[in-house]
Design brief:
Keywords: Oxidoreductase
Order of helices and strands: EHEHEHEHEHEHHHE
GO molecular function, one term: oxidoreductase activity
Strand order of the largest sheet: 3-2-1-4-5-6-7
Largest sheet: 7 strands, parallel
Number of domains: 2
Protein name: Cyclopentanol dehydrogenase
Strand content: 5-15%
InterPro entries: KR_dom (IPR057326), NAD(P)-bd_dom_sf (IPR036291), Sc_DH/Rdtase_CS (IPR020904), SDR_fam (IPR002347)
Number of helices: 8
Structural class: alpha/beta
Family: Belongs to the short-chain dehydrogenases/reductases (SDR) family.
Bound molecules: nicotinamide-adenine-dinucleotide
Length: 267
């Protein structure tokens, strides 16, 4: 069996209703994992889980607001009940609200801190509690956090977002260290996706025009591509395959790492 095969593994993907999270859930399922999608968008989340089941995978949806400790508690226990264990948690749920530093809106920054930083931190917390040897799943496993190329290079119009994604990077390292030292058996890594034209990515590009930073969304995207050695935008599958790798035994000696999946933009 390939070291990248996830047959028998049980995964929870946050923000899996659409966009990158839906692609990650699909790629994990294709690699053999049983997958639960956790999201605040119930209808879209159920539809994504249905389509995974139609393709032959074991998949389900749980309602999860990553900013709420109690919501995590219940989503993780439902996942373990549904799948019979938990080996992989992908902390993908995130929000991006563009804005110039000079016009910073505290409510927008608070929202990004809540979802991107607190939501990811709670995800790691509940993954550890479930997967460490004394937890209800108890077999160790892998956590993959979704940071961003915005944590590795400065890009105008997204200061608050970049700050939260840099926090995800640091949180990943500390969590990996604690897990190792305390014998949890859980590897913790993050990926830095480049720009992908999901709803979030397309809105970010449009915001660059609204903020007066580029003459059009197309011009902003053109400059991103020009800054990318591989010469194109990211695709959902590019990110999803990297998550499968970090979740798999192929990455068994990798923890506390941040993997750029950005065509070289952030090098
Ligand atoms: N698209 C990009 O260009 C890009 C680049 C770098 C990093 N990322 C990161 O990748 C992740 C996914 O991005 P995307 O482009 O798919 O975004 P998206 O907006 O298309 O999807 C985000 C998903 O997260 C869910 N979500 C939001 N708040 C939540 C909460 N409180 N609890 C549970 N779920 C919640 C949404 O309902 C949605 O399904 C995010 O963390 C984002 O910051 C995206």
């Amino acid at each position: 069996m390939s070291v990248y095969d996830l047959t028998g593994r049980k995964a929870l993907v946050t923000g899996g209703a659409r966009g990158l999270g839906a692609g990650m859930a699909e790629a994990l399922a294709r690699a053999g994992a049983a997958v639960v999608i956790g999201d605040i968008q119930e209808e879209a989340g159920k539809a994504t889980a249905d389509s995974l089941r139609e393709s032959g995978a074991t998949a389900a949806f749980v309602s999860l607001d990553v900013t709420e400790d109690a919501s995590w508690e219940s989503a993780v226990s439902q996942t373990i009940d549904e799948l019979g264990g938990l080996d992989i948690v992908v902390n993908n749920a995130g929000v991006e609200i563009s804005g110039l530093v000079a016009d910073l809106d505290p409510a927008d920054v608070r929202r990004m801190l809540e979802v991107n930083v607190l939501g990811t931190a709670l995800g790691v917390k509940h993954a550890f509690r479930a997967m460490r040897p004394d937890g209800p799943a108890g077999n160790g496993g892998a956590v993959v956090n979704i940071s961003s190329v915005a944590a590795t290079i400065p890009f105008p119009g997204i200061a608050g977002y970049s700050a939260t994604k840099s926090a995800v990077d640091r949180l990943t390292r500390v969590a990996a260290l604690e897990s190792g030292k305390l014998g949890y058996g859980v590897r913790v890594n993050c990926v830095y996706p480049g720009l992908v034209p999901t709803e979030m990515g397309a809105k970010l590009a449009a915001d660059m025009e609204t903020l007066g930073l580029w003459p059009s969304a197309e011009a902003a995207v053109g400059d991103v591509i020009a800054l990318t050695p591989l010469g194109r935008l990211g695709e959902v599958a590019d990110m999803a395959d990297a998550v499968v790798f970090l979740a798999s035994d192929g990455a068994r000696f990798i923890t506390g790492a941040g993997l750029p999946v950005d065509g070289g933009m952030g090098m």
